[in-house]
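Checked the freezer inventory, then went back to the computational side. Two predictions to log before the end of the day. The first one is the construct we discussed on Monday; recording sequence and tokens without edits.
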Amino acid sequence: MFCGFPNKTLPLAGAMALLLSGCSMTDKNQPPPPAPEPVAAPTPPPPSYVIKDVNFDFDKATLKPMASQVLDGVASELQQQPGVPYEVGGHTDSIGSTRYNQDLSERRAGTVRDYLVGRGVSGSQLSTRGYGESMPVASNKTAEGRAENRRVEIRPVK
């Protein structure tokens, strides 16, 4: 008996295991595995345009004079994204019948689309939709809120 073990093979096997555990079974001259391919960052979605300074007078679908400067900037941005379809959405306040407001919102969207096409944006890139009074961004109880609701938004089509 050796240190409480019945034979010498157990301590010898343990010593060999300790010695060999530091040895590697791989070739030290083998090149490291190739680095993983870099993953491209996802392309950010195209921007939406809630056009703050393009509001309409009550019961009108004509652009105000200050709208041209804002829409010229939007046209420039859209021309840089020729393959991205956008929806021009028209909105109204709640005064008037639902049917009338629907028609008015469609005319407002068409007015903005026509302006953008006149500034070089492809007509095939733009669709229009009227939302009537269904999506207010402000209270329709005040004149200021109603003015904010008479607007157009331009959003990418998903």
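The second is the one RB wanted added to the comparison set:
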Amino acid sequence: MTAPLTQLLHDVTRVAPAALPAALFVLKATLLLLLARLVTLALERASAGVRHLVWLVALGAMMVLPVLAVWGPLEVPILPAATVTTGTATTPEAPAAAAAAREGEQGRREVTASPDAREGRVAGADGVSLPGPGALLAGLWAVVALALLARLGLGALAVRRIVARATPLSDPSWEAPLYEIADRMGLADAPRLVRSGDVQMPFAAGLRRPVVVLPAESEAWSAERRTAVLIHELAHVRRRDLLGHTLGRVACALYWFHPLVWTAARGLRAESERACDDLALTFGARPSAYAEHLLDIVTAVRQSTTPAIALAMAHPKEFEGRMLAILNPDLSRRGPSRRQSASLVGALAGVALLVGAAVPVPQPARNVPSVLPVPPVQAALADTANNTTTSVSTPATPATPVAPAPAAHQETRTDTRTERVEQASESRAEQRIDALLAAQGGDDDRPTVLSRLLRTDSSAEVRRVAAWGLSRYARTDAVAEALASALAGDRDSTVREMAAWSLGNARRNPAVAAALARALKAERDPEVRTTIAWAIGSVRAEGALDALTASLTQGDADSREVTLWAIGSLRPERAPAGVLAALGDESKDVRLAAAWALYSIRDPEAVRALDAAFRKEQDADVQEGILKALAQAGEVAVPVLEQMLSSSDARVRATAVTALAGGNAGGPWPWPWPWPRPYP
């Protein structure tokens, strides 16, 4: 490949030297995109999330190529070398030859000094300078790029208009699955959910504040279809696909002339949709039912009105491939781990850096002696009269040493072997447990086998998977005892965390409540403590209230937030002092969680603390939370609510008057905050 590439650069340099930077830029982009295409083909059996990552890195590299092209520290000597002539003056020039040489030199100076020649303009018949081909091409590129970017801007405005005119969905039949799925995905904040009659296809939009827009037909959807759609759209939010989608659109606008960029953007979008499908199936959706929901939604759309900047749930052109992927049981659904993602991104970014930083330079100059015809007499005297000759030479500039390029194929093989080893290591624990369970001959023995593995196996990964598998049997006493024992005594923190999470499914079990309370007092790992607090709130372990209150002074903001949620879930008769003190916490989320806990507890004696906190609070969301807590405090809060009727904030007045009128000022606020499921 080196010879054709070198010849191409030679031809461009000779015919149109001014076009060399543009040609080199397009060539680098082509090499990167071809490499990304080859990598995705090699990863055909991998999950869609891995291939999506490849396209994302490739398009990201395209955006930084201009910077690398300007920087360009890696010089590659493949351009034609400058020839330096060493001449020997032997005789005086003839008058005619000297005159011709002087005229030629003068003409060269005039051409070199011409501004039109330097700036690439072509002189017209009347002497007026006209733009050259390079300037015309640059103008054409700018016009098309600006038009495509303007289209993206109009799409963003269209999304804002659709969202502004849409109806927020606050019905529990929508909010309950929304918050549950957001919790399972580990989203700190659930996206907004609205319904609009202006759209026919569900889509997600918004980089800073994500929003999911549903069509008007969604009102008649079944609960199963609602869950399937929400899982898919929230998967886009969790994976930050909106940012990648925008990156792809901007790349297409800037590289509109390059067909491979459009191919890469389509691949990025298609793989993001398949990755969200994989996540939906991983979360428990049945492939046949999920495919049926997707088919019904797509076939109901007569004409897509989704703005280009948004992420529609499906595109008819890509639908067939998605259906086949959903129904194929042999495809990998597991996304890349953090280590795999870092390795893949590092390898691709390294190659992109090498390609982008490479700059072709001329090869080392060569001294070529010029042979001038000399008269026979002077030729005979040359050996004995060297003083009659004058040597004129120009020293060659030494070439900058260039480091040898790394062996990319060797790195690819090494990365592939590493990836296989990591995948085998991650799945070894699951395979070992599956083999042991299959040997028992039925589901009835699963709790016994998993409990034994949890107690005795030497591998922490096996014990962790066993604890995860026991979550479905946590309501039985024997399983709860095994999980409590692991929570109290296992030496690995990830096993203890998984045991705590599984105990959260035990519900109202006094022995489990006591075990969780003891573990919360003894545990030192902050993540395990947070999961224990969530489990206490989930099983409503009233006996653990003192342990929860004591833990409010420990851990980070996330831990305090979940602990306050757990206290609110217990609903004690009186609000603990630690909850009242949390109204002044430095973290907004902790203060909001404290307000929710007091909203749930409904302690009349907390009104004074709530009133004082409301007057000091600067955040509007926390103020609204405190107001809703006051609305649940009973008659003793009426004087405070009456004072708030004179507030300049319409939201404050609306909440206060709703509470005074006997309405439900709290509504579904705020959604529960259970800890994300720690998948093995």
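For RB: The domain at 160-240+266-321 is CATH 3.30.2010.10 (Zincin-like). The CA atoms of residues 334 and 558 lie 27 Å apart. Let me know if you want it refolded.
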